[in-house]
Amino acid sequence: MSDLLVNDEEPELEPYYSVKTAEVLFNEIQQQTQDVESNDRCLILIGGGLTSLYYGLTDESIKKYLFVDKFLNEQIDNKKDDHIIQYRYDNPTEVPDALREKASFIIIEPDFIDQKIWVDYKKTIDIIRSSKDTPILAITTPENAETVQNAIQASPQLFLPSIPNLIYQYHIYATYKSESLSTTNSELEKLEKIIEESEKEAEKEHAKPERKERPIRTSSSVSTPSIRRVDKNLELLKKHKMPNYAFYTNKMPSIPQGALIDDIHKNWKDNFALLEYHHGYIQYLFPMFEAGMNYCSRPLTVEEQEAMLENEDCKKRLLVSYKMMLRFYGLSLKDDSTGEIEHDEGWESRYRAFTYHNNLRITRILKCLSLLGYPHFLKPFIRFMIDDILVHDNLSSSANSLMQFW
C-alpha cells in the first residue's frame, strides 16, 4: 500500500494527498490530456487543496495553472509564479485572457464546502474550457453531490481520495468515464479498522455521560491519514487519560498536525487560511460530549468538564479561543462579561467563512461554551445573528443553520 511521505521537521511541506491517491490523480491528468495536441495540453486546477498536485506534476509538456483564494495566494506569493492566480469569488468571470478557452482538463477542489460556490465555478468553467466536452473532475463532500451534478453534470466515482489530516471524507465526481476511478480505494478499508479499534479501546477507558448514539463511521465519514501517521498520533493520545484537559492546560498539542493551545492562540489567530484549511484543531479548542470526526480527538468526559470548570486558566484560554474564532468569522467580542458581540473590522470579506462546514463549527463552539463556563454567551450570539441574518439580510445563506441548530 502506498504511504504518505512524512516530513516531521517541516509538516507544512507534506503532500496533501496520500501517495496512492496522488498517483491516481496524476494518471487521470495524463489519460485525459494524451489525445490533445502537445502545444494545447493545458491543465487548470481550481482550489488551494490542489497545490500539491500543481507542484507535483513534472510533465513539462502540460501547461499548468492554479487558481487559489486570496489568503493562500498571499502565502505562496513569494514563489513569484505567474501561473498561480488569485481566484475572485466576488467576480468569478475575471480570468486572464491567456486562459480563455484553453483548458483541456479541469480539476476542482473547493476552498470552501459551500453549495453556492459551484454556481461561481460554473461561470469560470464556461470561460476556461476549450470545448463543451472538456473533461472535468471535482473533489468535494458528498453533501454537494446533487449541486455538482446539476452544475457540471459530473457523476460520483467509486474511488475515494485519501487525504491526510482531513477529518471528513471527500468524494470524486467526473464528467467522463474513468477506469482507475471506477475501483475502490483499498487504503480506506485498512485505516477504518485501525481507527475503530482505537475508538473501542478509548470507550473502555473513559466513562461517558448519556448522550445520543454516535453515528456509525462509514467510508463517507472516516478520516484518511496514512497508517504510519495513525499509529504515531494514537500513541500520543494514549499518554493522556484526559486529553481535552491536557490540551487546555497546555500539556498536550492538538492532533493531527496541531500545536499547544498557547501556541495556537499566539501564532494562528490571524492566519485565516490556516484556520480554514486545517481540520483537526476545532475539536480540541471546543470539546463537547458528542464525538467529532477527528480520529485523534476524544469526546469531552464529565471528569474533564469538572476539572476544566474548576481551572481558571482553562476558562481564560477558552475565552481566547472564542475570540480567535469570532475574528475568523468577522466578529469580535464587545463585552467579555456579557458575551455581547459586534462586527469586526473588515467583516464583509470575512463573512464568506460562513459556509457549510464552518457553520458546523459554530454549532460545536456554542455547545462547548454552554458546557465549560460560558452558557450566558449563547443568547448574545443568537440575538446578533438573528438581527444580522433575518433583519439586515447580511447572511441569508446561514438562515437554516440559525433556525435549526444555533
The DSSP helix count reads 17
- Major β-sheet profile: 7 strands, mixed
Helix content: 40-55%
Spatial extent as radius of gyration: 22 Å
> How many beta-strand segments?
9
**H/E order of the elements?**
HEHEHEEHEHEEHHHHHHHHEEHHHH
Topology (elements, then pairings):
Layout: H1 19-33, E1 42-46, H2 51-56, E2 63-68, H3 70-75, E3 84-86, E4 105-108, H4 117-128, E5 136-140, H5 145-152, E6 155-156, E7 171-174, H6 186-205, H7 227-238, H8 243-248, H9 261-267, H10 272-277, H11 282-285, H12 302-310, H13 312-328, E8 331-333, E9 341-343, H14 347-350, H15 356-371, H16 378-391, H17 399-404
Parallel strand pairs: 1-2, 1-4, 2-3, 4-5
Antiparallel strand pairs: 5-7, 6-7, 8-9
